[in-house]
Amino acid sequence: MANNNLENIKEKLLKLGKPLLAGDNRAKVLCIILSVFLWFLIKLSKEGYTGEVNFPVIYKEVPANKKLLNQPIDHLKVTLRSQGFEILKYKIRSLRPIEIDVSRLDMSNAEHYTWNTQSRRNMISSQLGDNTEIVDIKPDTVHFNFSLVRSKKVKVYFKGKRQISDFKTLYAEPVITPDSVMISGSEQTLSQIDSLFIKPISPSEDTDSLDVEVELQMSKNKDLEIIQEKVRVQALYTSLTEGKFEIPVKVINLPKSYNITLFPNKVFVKYQLALEDFSKVSKDDFEAYVDYDQIESMENDRFLTVYMESSPPYLKKLIIDPKQLEFIITEK
């Protein structure tokens, strides 16, 4: 019936166009265009056309204890057979996505699953007309690679400037709350991560204290999920001061049959520390020494290196002056 109507329209247009064909060339061109258009419509109305249509695919309900390692296809290419008009309509219109409920897949193998696309023929057919036939679906299978999701708690560490100028520094280790966070991901990913750092903090030189919320440095590994992405950081900064003591130098590993004389036999220790700790320091907190065994490895060297045996742990900087001493060895 559709073909007969189109033929009738074509004949009427040709009759109307005959007088025009003998005149203006533009009218001739118009008639040719109309003829081609009608021919195209007649062709599209015929059965037996095949065409490829892309159906969008979406995935939902991925189990909480599993993670997709690969990105499955987002379209199915479906070859259809129908009238040309029908094929054209499917190519133009927006098709309803094919939903894949991942939680309903038979995942007897915890890491890999293959899904047969032919099992969704009925869903695709429900969006098509009665006269449209599904010829083929590509790909015929979709592969899912899963990883079991694990969780563990890792320590969070400070990252930033500890000494913000020559005369100002952190007074103590910053307090991070919480000091640990939960992360989740594949076993392989978790095995590579033992700690996390905050994003670097760069306080100004006049900063005395910090109490800020800071983001954690995120891993580039997309498989890793950090449950809590921010922590609270509290820190105190203090002014630095300097001090100096002159202390004796002892000799270790000296054979009983020898005497050794050092020149000089004392050194200065110059140190830098927090202003709050200055009153805690005394000369007795420092011990310096040289090692007689160093002489055996020396080649025509007349100097022994001075080392510190003990010093206060809260010092920010320590300098020994002089660092090397001349010596004379004599037998007893």
From TrEMBL:
Instruction: Kindly give the Pfam families that the UniProt entry links to this protein.
Output: YbbR (PF07949)
Matches recorded under Gene3D superfamilies: 2.170.120.30, YbbR-like domain
Q: Which PANTHER family does the UniProt record give? A: CDAA REGULATORY PROTEIN CDAR (PTHR37804:SF1)
Protein name, per record? YbbR-like protein
Record the organism. Owenweeksia hongkongensis (strain DSM 17368 / CIP 108786 / JCM 12287 / NRRL B-23963 / UST20020801)
